[in-house]
Write a structure and sequence with these properties.
Blueprint lengths: L5 H33 L2 H5 L8 E3 L5 E3 L10 H7 L1 H32 L7 H13 L4 H10 L5 H7 L4 H12 L3 H9 L4 H9 L4 H17 L2 H6 L7 H13 L5 H4 L4 H35 L3
Antiparallel strand pairs: 1-2
Length: 301
């Protein structure tokens, strides 16, 4: 911290300490969920889970109460053995991948068109886009609209929920940040609108596009409400199926402490851990684009 005066040094130390503590507070619930998912019945019922479940070893000491990984009677083994859980997992991957792709095609083409001042009735289209963020027809009218449009299957669900005004505005503002001089030079060289979009605007807006892609992917992966209403049981994604499984586990009259080596909560938390693994892997890879992408797409100079 050379070259900093005393107040700047104090501020930086305070900031680092505060952010470290805040990160620990945010991380601890994840650690607790993982600990409960790994815990055996004795470890969970001991109410002594902080980082790892600890139980008495009978000799005045303690041991770590974790179900063996190679045991067929563990919470994660139960989740792995649930075929319907993985079938809904595949549904979620399908919705996340193809839903994000469809949404990005709509968002990129729409954002590119709306970023052009030469677009006929451009002000009106931009106003209507923003208007949908302030007012909506309500849940009942929206549901009736979805039903009338036939959005009650996998493919209709992907297309029907492919529009998001906020994300299109981010892309529009990101495209507006591309210097017009580059577009003019490419136009003089004979570039078409499609070439301008694919060769200039998309490569120069990678941060904004990556950020919006992550927003869409998270929305599709965590989607619950409309999926639970519009989709049939065999087409339901992971979040809806997990809710059904969690209710079945909670309402089970079987004493799991007798028939299993883990508690009901361990089974539920094991499902939660399995459901967020792809996001945990993907999010850090996209993190470096977030700050730049939101700043470019959210602010118009």
């Amino acid at each position: 911290m050379k070259g900093l005066d005393r107040t700047e040094v104090i501020f930086r130390i305070f900031s680092y300490v505060f952010l470290t503590l805040f990160a620990i507070v945010c991380l601890y619930p994840m650690i607790y969920v993982l600990s409960v998912a790994l815990s055996d019945t004795a470890g969970y019922t001991s109410n002594n889970i902080w980082l790892l479940p600890l139980v008495s070893d009978g000799n005045g000491g303690t041991r770590v109460g974790i179900s063996p990984f190679d045991s067929a009677n563990s919470a994660f083994a139960y989740v792995v053995s649930e075929k319907t859980f993985w079938f809904s997992y595949c549904n979620t991957i399908f919705y996340a991948f193809y839903g994000t792709a469809v949404s990005m095609i709509i968002g990129i083409t729409g954002g590119y068109a709306l970023s052009k001042t030469r677009l006929m009735f451009g002000r009106g289209f931009n106003f209507l886009l923003s208007f949908t963020m302030w007012f909506s027809a309500g849940i009942i009218a929206t549901y009736q609209n979805f039903v009338n449009l036939g959005i009650k299957n996998k493919y209709g669900f992907i297309i029907g929920l492919g529009f998001n005004a906020f994300n299109i505005i981010l892309l529009r503002n990101g495209f507006k940040g591309v210097p017009t001089e580059i577009e003019e030079a490419a136009t003089i060289d004979g570039a078409s609108e499609f070439q301008l979009l694919t060769k200039i605007y998309i490569p120069m807006s990678k941060s904004t596009i990556a950020t919006v892609t992550m927003f869409y992917a998270l929305s599709r992966w965590n989607g619950y409400y409309w999926a639970s209403i519009l989709l049939s049981e065999e087409d339901q994604p992971l979040q809806v199926h997990m809710r059904t499984m969690l209710q079945d586990i909670e309402n089970s009259e079987i004493d799991w402490s007798v028939s299993h080596n883990y508690s009901q909560d361990s089974a539920m938390f094991a499902m939660v851990i399995c459901s967020i693994i792809p996001i945990i892997i993907l999010y850090p890879l996209m993190q470096r684009y977030f700050a730049a992408g939101v700043n470019v797409g959210g602010v118009k100079e």
